[in-house]
Design goal:
heterodimer; B: 314 residues; MetI-like fold; 13 helices
Chain lengths: 265, 314
């Protein structure tokens, strides 16, 4: 087997869990005529059965459907925020490293400062201003700190790249700063950025669920954290709810982390 | 003498960056409640409240002054930790409510960090030392798995397994749980921390595992335990302390989750309560207090790092 097919196979294996998870959730949401908010009080806290494959939660909501919807909405939020973070952070970091001098020092210091920031606290702080947060509010709260790891990473990687001979050569041939960045630096950053995208997306999935768990769910209350919240309350009556919630958080966050490594060798 | 000076300089640097972090967080709270659309008084009193009631509350919260004046008052309050009276529990200062919630959270965090440090160091030693033989590769695999599992998924599952299924430990929210409940909650909080520390520690130890100084120590008759504990471990204390320090933000977020899970009183519970009851002074005070807790421990971690590792001191 050649090196190439091995790498391709590795990539497929790493992408598979996330693709599968999203695909199954999509099929379930599209196939079911019900909404995740639909309640069936007679089935409240029911164990898994033919009618409710994963059992039922508070008020008889079908857990499978709630998990599917929450997975889709959670991944969409994580994807948007982490892409936004990368779109802001990578140029900032790469540009700062190419410019050297004071700009580099400032960006580096700001990143160091914000890196250690308790982002969960920060999210609560921002959400304090709204009455019942929507997913957009949650997204804003996460996006405010999501760009930092990208900038930090781009800065560190560009510091290595900027003194390499192909960059020197291109500069000697008269390439502008923008061309150096776009044609030589950014393409070389991609695989590292992809790993960070996966890690950030996973962190946002967990962060969103954790906020929902402690009560700061988005106003539609469809979140993996809300399932966990119900599960903790009903730990003795209906342990499946708790296990379903915990497993879905784990599955979504770890498959995102793995998918990020697909671009890596 | 030189050592003390180096530690002092490192400490000074971390105090500076800590003050900056604190100022950013406090300013963010300040601005979030004042600049973003929506009247804080309406948030507190509800939409049906009369304009007069809102005006009275605004005056009480000092929201009728101009923004720079409010900010000056806010900063003065921050310095003296005086955020005014709690809205929901009149007569009690917000700072006092936060102070009484600070102890349980500190207990939890200290147990978490202690457990994480012990767990991480033990795992790092086991992953490199001769004790487990060929099985030591498994230590790393387990660490990777624990580190990849979010606390949010791990803690409820473990609680279910240990408390509900096997009754080894008291149930969450059990008022008679006492010390064992606290230890259980704290160790859950420390588990991801320990896994991160263990991975970093194991990697750092394997870097120095073949170094001659360890072989010399062994040849001079030191036992394996003494070689790894007395000669190898001090070399990797720096990275370990740094990991424990940088994971503190996650630890504070985790504390909110753990307090909610175990129905424990604490800073996280107070923060959430203040959020839902719109007790703005308490919310401001609790967020600032968590930030303070965070930066102080961060500074201690920085100073400890400088104390154990001469390379960090300038």
């Amino acid at each position: 087997m050649s090196e190439g097919t091995h790498v391709t196979r590795m990539r497929i294996v790493r992408l598979a869990p996330l693709v599968l998870l999203v695909f199954v959730s999509l099929v379930l949401t599209l196939a079911s005529p019900q909404r995740p908010e639909t309640l069936d009080p007679s089935a409240a806290w029911a164990p898994p059965s033919a009618a409710h494959w994963l059992g039922a939660g508070e008020g008889g909501s079908d857990l499978m459907l709630v998990v599917a919807h929450a997975t889709l909405r959670g991944s969409l939020l994580a994807l948007c925020v982490s892409l936004l973070g990368a779109a802001v952070g990578v140029p900032v970091g790469a540009l700062a490293a190419m410019m050297r001098g004071r700009a580099e020092a400032w960006v580096s210091r700001t990143c160091d400062l914000l890196q250690a920031f308790p982002s969960f606290l920060f999210a609560i702080t921002v959400l304090a201003a709204v009455r019942s947060p929507t997913r957009v509010h949650l997204g804003i709260a996460f996006a405010l700190t999501a760009w930092v790891p990208f900038a930090r990473l781009a800065l560190a990687e560009t510091r290595v790249l900027r003194s390499q001979s192909f960059i020197e050569a291109s500069r000697a041939l008269g390439a502008t700063q923008a061309r150096l960045l776009g044609h030589h630096v950014l393409p070389n950053l991609m695989s590292t950025i992809a790993v960070q995208l996966g890690a950030t997306a996973a962190a946002i999935v967990v962060g969103e669920a954790a906020l929902a768990f402690v009560g700061l769910a988005s106003s539609d209350r469809v979140s993996l954290g809300c399932i966990l919240d119900q599960g903790v309350a009903s730990m003795l009556r209906a342990p499946t709810v708790l296990l379903v919630g915990a497993l879905s958080v784990f599955a979504l966050s770890s498959s995102m982390m793995l998918a990020g490594r697909a671009a890596d060798r | 003498m030189k050592r003390a000076r180096g530690v002092a300089i490192a400490f000074g640097h971390s105090v500076l960056s800590c003050t900056a972090v604190m100022l950013i967080l406090a300013t963010a709270v300040f601005l979030a409640l004042r600049l973003l659309p929506g009247d804080p008084a309406a948030l507190v009193l509800g939409d049906e409240s009369s304009a007069q009631d809102r005006a009275v509350l605004r005056a009480k919260l000092g929201l009728d002054a101009s923004l720079p004046v409010q900010y000056a008052y806010f900063l003065r309050g921050l310095l003296t930790f005086d955020f005014g009276e709690s809205i929901r529990k009149p007569g009690i200062m917000a700072g006092a409510r936060v102070a009484s919630a600070l102890l349980p959270t500190t207990e939890l965090a200290v147990i978490g960090v202690a457990f994480g440090a012990v767990f991480g160091i033990t795992a790092a030693l086991l992953a490199n030392g001769p004790w487990l033989g060929a099985k030591k590769r498994w230590v790393n695999r387990v660490l990777v798995m624990v580190a990849a599992t979010p606390l949010l998924a791990l803690a409820p599952t473990l609680t279910f397994a240990l408390a509900v299924r096997t009754h080894l430990l008291p149930l969450p929210g059990d008022p008679d749980a006492g010390l064992s409940g606290l230890l259980f909650a704290g160790s859950l909080l420390g588990l991801p921390l320990g896994a991160h520390a263990g991975r970093i520690g194991a990697a750092a130890l394997s870097d120095i595992a073949d170094k001659p100084f360890l072989r010399v120590a062994r040849a001079k008759g030191a036992s394996h335990l003494s070689v790894w504990l007395r000669h190898a471990l001090p070399c990797v204390m720096g990275p370990l302390v740094t990991v424990l320090g940088t994971q503190l933000g996650a630890l504070l977020g985790g504390a909110v989750v753990i307090e909610r899970l175990f129905e424990r009183k604490g800073l996280g519970t107070l923060m959430i309560e203040a959020y839902f009851t719109r007790d703005l002074p308490v919310l401001e005070a609790s967020i600032c207090a968590s930030g303070l807790l965070f930066v102080v421990t961060q500074a201690i971690a920085g100073a400890l790092h400088a104390a154990v590792d001469p390379r960090v001191r300038a």
